[in-house]
Amino acid sequence: MLSFKSVPDIKLELASKIKRLRLDNEWTRAELARRSGVNINTLTRFERTGEISLSRFLQLSQILGRLGEFENLLNPAPYKTMAQALKAQRPKRQRGRRKNTNAK
To answer: What is the DSSP letter of 91?
Structure first.
C-alpha cells in the first residue's frame, strides 16, 4: 500500500494513538509508565515528539492490549500476477551470491 505520509507524520500519529489508548483506560502517564516499565520521561517525549525505541513502543502496545496487531506487520504482499505467484513457489535463496574471483 502506497502512503504519502512522511515518517515524522506517522510517528506523531502513532504517539497520538498510544495517548488515546492511555486516556481511554483513564491512566495517567505515570500509570502507563509504571505498568509498562517505560520511563515516564520517555513516554512524555514520545507523546510529544513521536520519538521512542521499537522495544519501548512494543512494551506500551503490549500493556495497552495491542501487541498482537504487530504479528502481521511486513508480511509478504499478496501476488498481483500469476508470474509473481509462480516465482514465490521457487525455493528462497539462503545466502548471497558468491563473488567471481576469476573476473578481471
So the answer is: P
- Beta carbons within 8 Å of 54's beta carbon, 6+ residues apart: none
* Domains by residue range for the chain, with CATH: 7-89 (1.10.260.40)
* 66 vs 49: CA distance, rounded Å: 21
Phi-psi region of 2 (alpha: psi -120 to 50; beta: other; left: phi over 0): beta
**Torsions phi, psi for 82 (to 5 deg):** -65, -35
**Tens-place pLDDT, residues 24-59:** 999 999 999 999 999 999 999 999 999 999 999 999
This prediction's pTM: 0.72
